[in-house]
């Protein structure tokens, strides 16, 4: 009898615990979603807004609107429906791209069998989230041109401070009359780590394109494969961007079916971009977006208002280090092994104008701020011949002095009209 009397209190405790867990799951999901949207907006690249939100114990639903911070050529309307559980929340929804009238006219008709749907899961205890999206094949047609995309998939996972993205594309084909460009499979892997408000952040990206084929009636060009690596870091003092391009083989089968045209790699790093100025520019962009009309592009005169901040980004004398240019051309019998650096003179920045770069005189003033040097090691004889140097010259020293190029102490000859 005593045990029977305990059943009701135990069931009541279990029911209360379940209700509390459900409520906690709903609250934590909402907090995680809000934090993720704030983190996305803190990057300074996106405008994010919630057009609808209904939170409940068992389910929540809503819709989001994402668009580029600069301009409004397109936007993404994302809806979600969340089913809360004690340990996790399952989420699903739709993803609908919208184009502005000008871009819609330029793109033309889009043929897709259904609205893209996505699925995801939020783990209540760890705060880890994952999202999966698979696009049905679609075709865009305009004035005889056609873009055919097949096998597009995306996976996004992570938690506050650390997000990973993986995008897969089986094949993309662009047809314009008798010309055709085909590429794929394509894999993009990205990792983004940051602290609150993206004061410091780092992002690594790796794009791998297994095969590219360009077909013209007269000839074909094939590239296999291409890898692009990038690493961007914003720390206390500076923004650094490092990149590497690796090209496997470029072939022209109609001209030389057995011999590659070229292959190689290029590595470079841009550094000394003032960190505080970068953060201030991002804040100003977010302010401009907040003040403007969500349906319209950025207000006129934006570049003029940002000019001071943009010039401050250059205040630490940025430098571009080209650490490796290694290119080999079996078909032409040429090889390049070069490295060097360029430096920007940041003194008297108030004498420069970003707005005036469209004028030749202003562009000349900017070029005068650039100095640097490059060395082409073990250069072929034909390169010395092109540059008007003695045929026995094996090392080419390129100097940039106030924007003017010299080679081995001589003025750079005019290589083309």
TrEMBL record:
InterPro entries in the record: DUF945 (IPR010352)
Source organism superkingdom: Bacteria
Pfam families: DUF945 (PF06097)
Protein name listed in UniProt: DUF945 domain-containing protein
């Amino acid at each position: 009898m005593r045990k029977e009397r305990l059943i009701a209190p135990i069931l009541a405790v279990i029911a209360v615990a379940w209700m509390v867990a459900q409520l906690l799951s709903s609250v934590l999901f909402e907090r995680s979603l809000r934090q993720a949207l704030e983190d996305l907006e803190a990057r300074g690249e996106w405008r994010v807004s919630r057009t609808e939100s209904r939170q409940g114990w068992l389910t929540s639903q809503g819709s989001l609107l994402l668009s580029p911070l600069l301009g409004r050529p397109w936007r993404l309307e994302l809806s979600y429906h969340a089913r809360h559980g004690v340990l996790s929340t399952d989420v699903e929804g739709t993803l609908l791209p919208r184009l502005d009238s000008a871009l819609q006219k330029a793109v033309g008709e889009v043929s897709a069998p259904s609205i893209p749907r996505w699925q995801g899961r939020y783990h209540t205890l760890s705060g880890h989230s994952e999202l999966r999206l698979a696009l049905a094949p679609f075709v865009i047609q305009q004035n005889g041109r056609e873009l055919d995309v097949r096998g597009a998939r995306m996976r996004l996972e992570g938690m506050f401070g650390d997000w990973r993205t993986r995008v897969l594309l089986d094949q993309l084909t662009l047809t314009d009359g008798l010309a055709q460009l085909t590429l794929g499979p394509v894999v993009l892997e990205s990792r983004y780590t940051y602290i609150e408000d993206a004061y410091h952040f780092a992002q690594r990206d790796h794009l791998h394109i297994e095969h590219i084929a360009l077909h013209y009636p007269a000839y074909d060009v094939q590239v296999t494969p291409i890898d692009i690596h990038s690493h961007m870091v914003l720390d206390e003092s500076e923004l650094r961007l490092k990149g590497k391009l690796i090209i496997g083989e470029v072939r022209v089968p109609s001209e030389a079916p057995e011999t590659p045209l070229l292959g190689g790699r290029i590595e470079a790093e841009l550094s000394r971009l003032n960190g505080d100025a970068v953060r201030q520019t991002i804040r100003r962009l977010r302010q401009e977006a907040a003040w403007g009309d969500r349906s319209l592009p950025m207000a006129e005169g934006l570049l003029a208002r940002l000019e001071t901040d943009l010039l401050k980004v250059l205040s630490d004398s940025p430098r571009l280090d080209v650490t490796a240019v290694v290119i080999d051309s079996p078909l032409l019998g040429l090889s390049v092994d070069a490295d060097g650096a360029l430096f920007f003179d940041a003194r008297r920045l108030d004498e420069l104008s970003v707005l005036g770069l469209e004028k030749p005189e202003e562009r000349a003033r900017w070029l005068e701020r650039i100095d640097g040097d490059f060395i082409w090691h073990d250069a072929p004889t034909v390169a010395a011949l092109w540059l008007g140097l003695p045929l026995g010259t094996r090392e080419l020293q390129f100097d940039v002095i106030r924007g003017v190029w010299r080679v081995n102490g001589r003025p750079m000859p005019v290589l083309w009209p």
